[in-house]
Write a structure and sequence with these properties.
Blueprint lengths: L2 E6 L11 H13 L4 E8 L2 H7 L3 E9 L2 E10 L2 E7 L1 H4 L18 H16 L10 E5 H5 L1 H6 L8 E5 L7 E2 L20 E2 L2 E3 H8 L2 E4 L2 H6 L10 H7 L3 E3 L30 H11 L8 E5 L8 H13 L3 E5 L4 H13 L4 E4 L4 H10 L2 E4 L9 H7 L3 E5 L2 H6 L5 H6 L5 E3 L4 H16 L3 H11 L5 H20 L1
Parallel strand pairs: 1-2, 1-6, 2-5, 6-7, 7-11, 11-12, 13-14, 13-16, 14-15, 16-17, 17-18
Antiparallel strand pairs: 3-4, 4-5, 8-10, 9-10
Helix pairs in contact: 10-13, 11-12, 11-17
Length: 485
Amino acid sequence: MALRVLSVTSELHPLVKTGGLADVAGALPIALVQHGVETRSLLPAYPQVLRKIGRAKAVHSYKALFGGPAKLLSVQTNGLDLLLLDSPSLFGSREGGPYGDLSGHDYADNWRRFAALSAVAADVAAGALKGWQADLVHAHDWQAAMTAAYVRHGRAPQTPVVLTVHNLAFQGRFDAGIFPALGLPQSAYSVDGVEYYGGVGYLKAGLQYADAIITVSPTYADEIRTPAFGMGLDGLLRGRGDAVHGIVNGIDTAEWNPAADPHLAAAFSMRSLGARSGNRRALEKRFGLKRGKGPVFAVISRLTWQKGIDLIVDAVEHLVAHGGRLVVLGSGDSAFEGALLAAAARHRGLIGVVTAYDEPLAHLIQGGVDAILIPSRFEPCGLTQLYGQRYGTIPIAARTGGLADTIVDANDAALTAGCATGLLHDPNSGEALKAAISRAIALYWAPGVWSALRKQGMRADYGWGRSSARYAALYRSLVDRNRTA
């Protein structure tokens, strides 16, 4: 008999995406099918989602859900079974993205919006939908983390809840004044509940109430239980003991397949790496780069301090002076955007910058550059390095979190053994990044070495097979434990 899972998420590829959460939420349910797991994904019905799905069936309604009428829509699309929370007052048209306005400020009612999502998830877990009952609920990040609190204090308190933390830095912390409007019993406002430093912590509540906590790489699971990476939650995480698991993310190998990617100028495989040159030429034209023989580096990232963008800004002159070129795709802090655009102006034809989110262009970059820079100060898992290896682009990354788990450094031993897939450097160090760039350029010009690195990365298996099996096994262990309790 199939295991029925309700996945609760604030974004899901290909319908709405701001980062890797969407990729995981979209790919994992499909990968779990082979393990006998049927997933229904609960997602806000943002306007862009409604435009993409076409007709959907209303399966439940609310006269007043956190301030306004709402309904649940059911639809199947892109191999996914979806429940969409259609609440115009909470998720209707706004000038901005899923979480904030055009100036980058969070919406003032985010506490209400994602409390509603979590409360509805608990209703579904308790049997609100005729003919369908979840065996387990899987919540993603702070936006869905309150699901665990609503389940525990609702009509199905024995339903197991799993919480995946994609990035501990984003916690959903709000003033204590919102608590009366959440609809939870007063007993929930305690240090063992949703209270967090005198306010309400959505992620903290999930970490407290969930039966199992998953983060997206084994190294990050260890890191977040230390003061240096725990973001104030390391004590709670240490206290959860064996309930904390690290399962590395996979990627959708059908979506990211260089042999059949419609976003590439030239498809290629490990046996036809020469065809990659067509993508390089397309990139040179797109970014206004001069033709050249030296390596082309890339940045595809949110332009933030966490991602080490200040280190990249500092390394630009070093990269160019040693014969490299650089393309940047991303948006974020205005200071970093400005610094990178200024570097492009100083080095016309050697640096190109696009300050936007552009999924097709991200594919073309991965298929056309030689190396991708990922000097993150912390990185729960990261998917960029996995996409890079799949496309024959060498990751140059900080030795932290999932980057350390998914890249084999090209040191002498690994090069000799033929297992190196990238270059790792010490995190939070501009000099270490520059040294890694120099090392990459030297390897680029070494006969046969760069091609071997590319092929070793392309041979690696970073699909969802092993990771989805671990998720399914954890689900079943929790459900079995609940049934025998």
